[in-house]
Design a protein that fits this description.
- The structure is a single chain.
- The protein is an alpha/beta fold and 132 residues long.
- It has a single domain, classed as Nucleotidyltransferase, domain 5 (2-Layer Sandwich), CATH 3.30.420.60.
- It contains 4 helices and 5 strands, in the order βββαβααβα.
- It has a 5-stranded mixed beta sheet with strand order 3-2-1-4-5.
- Helix 1 crosses helix 2.
Length: 132
């Protein structure tokens, strides 16, 4: 996958968020960004059930975290801080994120990679982007 310089890359799982800016022009070079605070939630968004019929506390916490991440990314997009967005997330988390995207956030998405890469180095994440 080719990313334009300045693309925000969000790497997410059910409990962690890491943000990077692509500073490369010829290849992907990820520069870590500060991680915003994510509002703690006991469960997913109001009016939306969890992805399981009888979610346990861990599942509810992971779903709630994904909702919080979607809100933060939506706010960044709506405040014109993000022009292009690539999301790399664990498959279940990616599904929860999609439920929370604002239409403008969806319009700014340049791609999604359904893979858990939290805890990986920027070089490992860049390599996964190159292969996508």
């Amino acid at each position: 996958m080719i990313l334009s310089a300045g693309t925000l890359v969000a790497v997410v799982d059910g409990e962690k968020l890491a943000l990077f800016h692509n500073t490369g022009h010829q290849s992907v070079e990820l520069t870590p960004q500060p991680t915003p605070d994510i509002a703690e939630r006991a469960s997913g968004a109001a009016g939306r059930g969890s992805s399981e019929a009888n979610p346990d506390n861990d599942t509810q916490a992971e779903d709630g975290f994904a909702v919080g991440v979607a809100e933060v990314l939506n706010r960044m997009v709506l405040n014109h801080k993000v022009e292009h967005l690539l999301v790399i997330a664990a498959p279940k988390t990616l599904g929860q994120l999609r439920k929370g995207w604002h239409k403008e956030t969806t319009a700014r998405l340049v791609g999604e990679i359904s893979k858990d890469l939290t805890g990986h180095t920027p070089a490992q994440i860049a390599a996964a982007i190159d292969k996508a």
